[in-house]
Amino acid sequence: MAQQDRPTLKTIATIAGLAVTTVSRALAGAPQIAPETRARVQRIADEIGYSPDRAAQRLRTGRSNVIALILPPHEEILGYGASMIRGITRALRGTPYHVVVMPHFEDIPEEQTLDKIIRNRLADGILFSCIRPDDRRVKILLEDKLPFVTHGRTELATPHPWVDYDNFAFAYRAVERLVALGVRRPALVSAPPAQTFSQHLRAGFFRACGEAGVAGEVMDGIDTDDPPEAIYRHIRARLDHAGMPDGFVCPGEVSALAVNAAWVDAGVSTRHLVMKSTSDIANFIRPRFDSIFEDLTETGERMTTLLLRYIAGEPAEDLHYLLAPPPMTFPYGGR
After folding, report:
1. What is the Cα–Cα distance from 321 to 151, expressed in whole angstroms?
2. What value, to the nearest 5°, has the Cα angle with vertex 164 and ends 257 and 210?
3. Could you identify which of 16, 126, 222, 261 might form a hypothetical disulfide with 234, taking C-beta atoms 3.0 to 4.6 angstroms apart as the criterion?
4. Number of Cα atoms under 13 Å in the Cβ half of residue 107
5. Are the CB atoms for 279 and 66 separated by under 8 Å?
6. What is the DSSP letter of 249?
7. Considering only CA atoms, which of 134, 120, 74, 70 is closest in space to residue 99?
8. Which domains does the chain have, with CATH numbers?
9. What is the pLDDT along the chain (335 residues), one digit of tens a residue?
10. Cα gap 306→19, rounded to integer Å
């Protein structure tokens, strides 16, 4: 379509028989406009392929109507990006906002991607993950006053919006299950030590081990950010030594696959493992292991909902959500 033929607010107004200002407010979801009118205007806009002129909109309102998702180079979390985006778009449906994915590359400082968004005002709000207890990115955004929501928690005194999964509860329940299966030397493949949720995993793991009277071990030298080959080699070497673990807690499917491969190649016949799953891949692993699900689609949706509320002016201290792990899946045949 040529630029001069591009549908405009005036095009919609002519078709709908409404004033341009009414159409504009209807598309913005103004509560003063009747729901039936908003729905009719939106239907016409969809039918003729209308999309707002972002540049003109930004000049007029100071807003881009863009939500930026900074996507880390996850290997451990299967389907992370697709699941998060599915949840984000679900929350943005019916709003004037759309999502833009900003990939973070490992060879570029994390603050550089953030600074690009801030300096150029590329978004009205930001979603990001891999959170540290004293996260510099959070401090930068708090100082700049650009709305954001983190996937994970910090230990900063200033409140900020966040959504997190209860990794303490996951690790605690995983150890409980292993002990019930007869495991006496459980081991944890943990998250990167610098990230806050690693502390939550370790705390839940060791709490459950202490209460059960078993000797828990964290696999030092590897974490879930390592490639599966590195995890496999480390576990394979550990299994060649006395006092090897007889059960594993894995906070992701990739680490679980690496552990299982090391077990098989070491000739271990009895294998007990509890993993966190974020996809349906657990259904196709043999033998089938116990798993606890983390719903990343819900995470993306809740993060976006909180971000929209933050943009609208709600206080940060009211904008956080901790996702409780759902019931465990027991492929071994029950509790």
Report:
1. 10
2. 65
3. 222
4. 0
5. no
6. E
7. 70
8. 9-52 (1.10.260.40), 66-165+296-323 (3.40.50.2300), 167-293 (3.40.50.2300)
9. 444 577 888 999 999 999 999 998 888 777 789 999 999 998 998 888 887 766 555 545 556 799 999 988 766 677 888 999 999 999 998 888 999 998 877 777 878 888 889 988 889 999 999 999 999 999 999 999 999 999 999 999 999 999 999 999 999 999 999 999 999 999 999 999 999 999 999 999 999 999 999 999 999 899 999 999 999 999 999 988 878 999 999 999 999 999 999 999 998 888 899 999 998 887 777 788 899 999 999 999 999 999 999 999 999 999 999 999 999 887 654 44
10. 33
Q: Report the alpha-carbon distance of residue 31 to residue 258 in Å, rounded.
A: 53
Q: How far is CA 22 from CA 17, 56, 92, 189, 285, in A?
A: 10, 18, 22, 57, 56
Alpha-carbon distance of 134 to 277, in angstroms, equals: 28
Per-residue CA distances from 290 to 175, 177, 252, 285, 334 (Å): 11, 9, 12, 11, 10
How far is the C-alpha of 109 from the C-alpha of 94, rounded, in Å? 35
Strand-pair category, 320-323 with 273-277: unpaired
One-letter amino acid of 217: E
CB atoms within 10 A of CB 318: 11
Model confidence, pTM: 0.81
Of 74, 99, 96, the closest CA to residue 88 belongs to: 99
User: How many whole angstroms separate alpha carbon 35 and alpha carbon 22?
Assistant: 12
d(CA 152, CA 40): 40
| H/E run at residue 185 | none
